[in-house]
Every structure is written in structure tokens, then in C-alpha cells.
Amino acid sequence: MTDTTERLEVDGFALIGRTFEEYVHMFDLDPAALAGQTVLDCPSGVGSFVRTANERGIDAMGVDIAYGMSPTRLSQLANADYEHVVAQLREMSSLFEWGFYGDIDGRSRYLKRAHEEFSDDFERNRGRYVHAALPSLPFNSDSFSVVLSAHCLFLYGDRLDREFYLASLRELARVATEEVRVFPLSELDTNRYHALDWIVKTLESEGYTPEQVSVPFEFQRGVAEMLRITDV
């Protein structure tokens, strides 16, 4: 991956979401193998993975600090972030590979669908969505078979320090019985997270088995790996 000074400009943390289909690719998931298992999506944002996973027989829950808001306020913020993100994509389209989405309009449709499906499920099945934030989750140890974490850990390396990320990974591992998967391994500028080697070595020294694994998904240019943590 080549270094670049271009980057998406995101104030705070973007409140957007992904679909089940996107998760299958970015985490290289086998939906059939997940059926009947417990899965945590953290942070879940306004994504529709939890809804679709439950429809497919997967016992999935989502966690996000934003779930303390009213549905109306949540949608207002998500809509504003959607507009900002799409505008950024149009300005910096060269930072991205468009094979999965086709083009910016395709990406926009995924964002809209994720939010719409989430909003409906958030209203109907509030128990699936827990108001909490890393690095402290309100679950007993070994509560979930698999834990997924997308577009938070590592992405915001300019505003969250490596100690926060390490503590968050330990917490995700605490509540998992089988594995934790984290995507992507880059920051907003598409460069590999600068403290990733330190985090991997620290996790190894604590008895975890972290692996950087290629996935069949690339949106940020050159970013097509996840961190898979086993021996949790």
C-alpha cells in the first residue's frame, strides 16, 4: 500500500452502517456455519447485519453508544452523516475500489438500505440493540460465539490511542468463546494502522492468537485484510 496524504474527513465518528452482505465479504463469513450461533456486532451503528442475521437463524445482537438516543434523533444524525460521507466519496473517489459497489450510487444504496432496515428493526426489536461502548461491555464472559467489529477499531487512529484499541480488543475477546474478527486494519487515509504490530505482539504475549487474514472485500484501496483473534 502506498502512503497518501488524502483521507476522508470525518468529524467525531461516522454514524453509518453496513448490510449483512457487506459483512459476509469483509469478514469472510460463512452464513450457514453461523446459523444457531450467538454473534455480537460491536459497534453496530445503523447497520442491518443484526436484523438480517436473525432472519437467517443467527442469534445476533448489536452494541453502540448511539443506542441511548431516541429513534428520531438517531435517524437525524445518521442522515446527516450519510450526506457527509457520500459527499466525501464523490470528492475522493480515487481512494476507493468500486468493484463491489459498482459506483458511488451503488455505495449510497447500500448505506440507505442498511439504515432503513436497521431503523425498522430498532423500533420492533429493541432488545437486540444494547446501549454501551468499548472498552467496557455489559455482558458476561463467553457470552457470544463470534464477535465482529467493523470500521471503528484502527480506523480512527488519529483520535483514539493504541491503549484504547488494545483494551477494546481484550474486552471483545472476553465476551467471545471462539473468535473476534476486526475490519479494516487501516486508518481513514487508507494506510495501515500505525500501532498494529505493537498490538499484535502484545496480544500474542497475553496468550491470544492474532492473525492478519486476507478477505474477499476491498473498498479502501489496498485494504483487504482483517484481524482474526482466536484462543480467546
Automatic annotation (TrEMBL):
One of its GO terms (biological process) is methylation. Keywords: Methyltransferase, Transferase. It comes from Halocatena pleomorpha. This is Class I SAM-dependent methyltransferase. GO terms for molecular function: methyltransferase activity.
